[in-house]
Amino acid sequence: SQTIHQWPATLVQPVGSPLSLECTVEGTSNPNLYWYRQAAGRGLQLLFYSVGIGQISSEVPQNLSASRPQDRQFILSSKKLLLSDSGFYLCAWSAGGETQYFGPGTRLLVL
Amino acid sequence: GENVEQHPSTLSVQEGDSAVIKCTYSDSASNYFPWYKQELGKGPQLIIDIRSNVGEKKDQRIAVTLNKTAKHFSLHITETQPEDSAVYFCAARWGGGGADGLTFGKGTHLIIQP
Predict the structure, then answer these.
(1) DSSP string, chain A
(2) pLDDT confidence band for A61 (50 / 70 / 90)
């Protein structure tokens, strides 16, 4: 069966510091991968998606970036965090079809 | 693109009663409609989905109905239990674009009163 992992689970970072969040998927090959952000009490905002290694599409312009160095690894990064980057970051995968499956999420607090 | 509206934002029902959450979508080309349940501090979990060639789908206490003409779909939970308390999100897959094109509603906080 397929599983999706995210780490860290929780992160507290100062404004202006760098960020690296990691997502890995097991049990499937060539998945579509997604990064979402969920602000407190809000819906899900798609940030990036990837249909293959090195292929990244951005949905929302901001100071975040994403990379896919391996087939089942998706990384969300920032060079300098802003207060507004605080939120719950979710990684998801799909088998190229419709259904997306979410990871457990990373809670980021920027102080 | 697609726009999904979800109502209500908060729903409180007595344990054992039914709960209904409604969503509308804007793109008539949308063809896939999943529902997710999110418990506090966790990622959303798929609970049921429906495709545009079907009008209703049931899975035990959960059912989803789709009205393509009116462009709305609903989640029905019967015999609600305390563990049904969570935030529920609807989504629609629009036919226009990449990344499987899922657009989410803003969520409904379902509260089951004992």
Answers:
(1) --EEEEE-SEEEE-TT--EEEEEEEES-SS-EEEEEEE-TT--EEEEEEEEETTEEEESS-SSEEEEEEETTEEEEEESS--GGG-EEEEEEEESSSS--EE---EEEEE-
(2) low
